[in-house]
Amino acid sequence: MKLRATHYGFTIFSCILLSTFSGRIEAQISQKNIVVYQVGDGINYGTNTATPAFIMEYNRDTIGQASPVHAITIPTTGSARLVNSYSTNSDGFINLSNDSTRIVMAGYDTTTTTIGITSSSSSLIPRVVDTISWRGIPGRAATTSSFSGQAFQSATAGNGDDYWGCGASNGVVYLGNTATTATVSSTIASIRVLSSSNGNLYFSTGSGTVGIYKFSGLPTASATPSLLIATGTGSSPYAFSVNAGETVVYCADDRSTGGIFRWTLSGTTWTATDSLKPGSAAARGIAVDWSGAYPVVFATTTDNKLIKWIDSNNASHIYTVLATAGTNKFFRSVALAPKSPCNLTASVSFFGTGNTCVGDSILLSANTGTGVSYQWSRNNVRLTNDTLQTYKVGVSGIYTVTISNAIKCSATSPFQRIYINPKPDTSLTFSTSKPLCTGDTLVVCAQNLPYLVYQWKRNGSLTTVATPCDTIGVGGSYQLFITDTANHCTDSSNAFTVTAYTTPSAALVPAGRMPLCNGTTLKLHTNNAANLSYVWTKNDTTISGSTDSTLVAALAGIYKVRVQLNGTSCADSAADTLIVVPMPNISITKLSKDTVCEGDTIRVRAGAGPSYQFQWVIGGFGSSSLSLDSNFIIVAPSVPGITTAPYKLFVTSGFGCVDSSATQYQTIIPLPIPLINYIVGTLTAGAFNTYQWYLNGSIIPGATNATFVPTANGDYTVHVTNAEGCSATSDPYTVTGLSVNDALLNAGISIYPNPVKGLLKIEANYPLNVVLTDMSGRELLQKQNAKSIEMGSFAQGVYLLKVYRENGVFMGSKLVTKVGE
């Protein structure tokens, strides 16, 4: 079979955007189509709300298109984010740049659903300009803080990186990039549509003298516009198109009687020489193709239609509807497709003669160029990473090369059809996918065709087998070589390895005593070697998760293990029976309470059983010896801070099974620790449930409070009981020198007479507060700014008077004796 290369004699030329390394071609805008700026995606966003926008590409000639040829989504996130108002019909006007290479659009840099964007501050929601070239990719061109609080209605561009914008009240602003941002003109504040063509800047307005104005050139600083066409009282001009000679202008007018107006210059006078009324609607967007015998006018109407009118001057006013926007979608404006600056050619030549098989080289070579890159394709599919000027062909197919330059223009060569003789199919089928155990065989086969010759190799050496199939029973590395006698192409299969394995042995060995005590475990061991896997069963049911050479068993039953060599079917099994005997009874009966005070005892008894032996273990306090007696008496330890004493029972059955109880606890109530303090003539003992005071070992009748006021010198003790009923007696506290405190006299405080029958007087140079208590500490009277106390109503006896300053400072106390009349 001979190699054939076919060259088809026509040129394929295209200007497309290549994503060179991704293997993806971006959808460029065709110059044969028309583009419409659509606001809205079918969702009702509400009044003056940020809404996504789209460039919709339609065929110029097809009537009633249900969907665009291509749609470009303007980004709503990222560096080129741009949205427009859902309800504002006066923004969203697109234009071509002065050199017709870019679509220019004005909008707002904010998220969709943002409310009030046209009236927003531009410091919060910047006004931005995006462009789209013939490549079809939106990009950010300019950002401005102008047009704050007003709609950003239209923008345009020059030949380079100059941009202008207009709004509802700021006039025309140069947005910068090649010069300093500046207000070009604010003489006419409210400007609707801004456009650049013929090297000049034009705009339309509905304010002042309504019409279309012109700046000579493309000013980047302050300039004065001149009135080009006064469209007349009641007119409402929006988008417009000026021919190259500036003698004919088509203007969209949205008044109720408006539509598309043709204005013609005769001498120095502009006259509306014709108009088209698109049904009951008017028009706002317009684009005109001036290249043919007659101007072809495209317009977007106020009822959301894209229409086409060929103005042949026959006054027939026949137009066609190319497309209609859907629900909650708005055709705001229209423009011609941007032009492509591409001018490249591509061609392919090839080298190589004679018969060739897959894998031999056929070299394709593209024409050379300066600053160009290459992308080869086979059968219209890009070849990954094949971007050199030459390409080595190894597969039959139709080959082309696409040449691209720095501005992403490209051209695709005429195709070359290359045929390469195929090598024989060396794919193999196997009778089993399992590695072999000793004694097994494997049958391997290739395709069986009469013109093929076969030769098998084992471990690199030829065997005697020369048939399509080989029966293999010995391990080794195998490979099949096949020769196609029709085209003399030879190929070999992938080498494959056959391994013969020895079946592992399985032996089940228990590691521990038998029978097994209930609740304990026993390890069962089997063959432990590398590259083995294990499956354990109990009573022929697989034990989930048990895949090791050792199994921990706890229940009676017949245990089996299957040992298998990994990656093979080689396996062996072994079994053993496990008997389980019950554990001893470890019940505990408490024969007395287990909540005691320090030093008390409790008595417990264990459950009995045949040949049981018992051992009691007291946590931290020793243990009993092994005994046949199940009774035990536990003494609560008298250790400070110990509130629980754990104890545990160990029982050994006649089978030798040992079990232990859960840890039991006797609750030890710490004894109270009363500590006597002497404060301002009063003995205090702390917080307890009950009290009894003693003097020199004798009980003080009635002294059962937490405090006691001593009336005599001696050793005082107090016996207390806590909430749990545990009692203790304090260490003695010795009271000596019991007398009147002289601190009051030193402070200039006089209290008299004492003893007193009736009125007790209190004198000082500053206000005093007093508290009177009996000798048990019970408070009888409080008085502020006290100058005297009437003692006549109190019983005879000794009382304690505590004296404080008005600010709460304690001054001292005094014993007061009440006597009879």
Number of strands: 79
Number of helices: 1
Mean pLDDT: 86
Described by strand count, sense and barrel closure, the largest sheet is: 6 strands, antiparallel
Helix content: under 10%
The first-to-last residue Cα distance is 152 Å
Low-pLDDT runs: 1-26
- The radius of gyration is 54 Å
Question: Would you kindly provide a written description of the structure presented here, covering whatever features stand out?
Answer:
The chain is mainly beta and 821 residues long. It has one helix and 79 strands. The strands form 22 sheets. Strands 1, 32, 33, 35, 36 and 37 form a six-stranded antiparallel β-sheet that branches. Strands 41, 42, 44, 45 and 46 form a five-stranded antiparallel β-sheet that branches. Strands 58, 60, 62, 63 and 64 form a five-stranded mixed β-sheet that branches. Strand 54 and strand 55 (571-578) form a beta hairpin. The chain is flat. The N and C termini lie far apart (152 Å).
In short:
With about 800 residues, this protein is mostly beta strands. The protein contains 1 helix and 79 strands. The strands form 22 sheets. Strands 1, 32, 33, 35, 36 and 37 form a 6-stranded antiparallel sheet that branches.
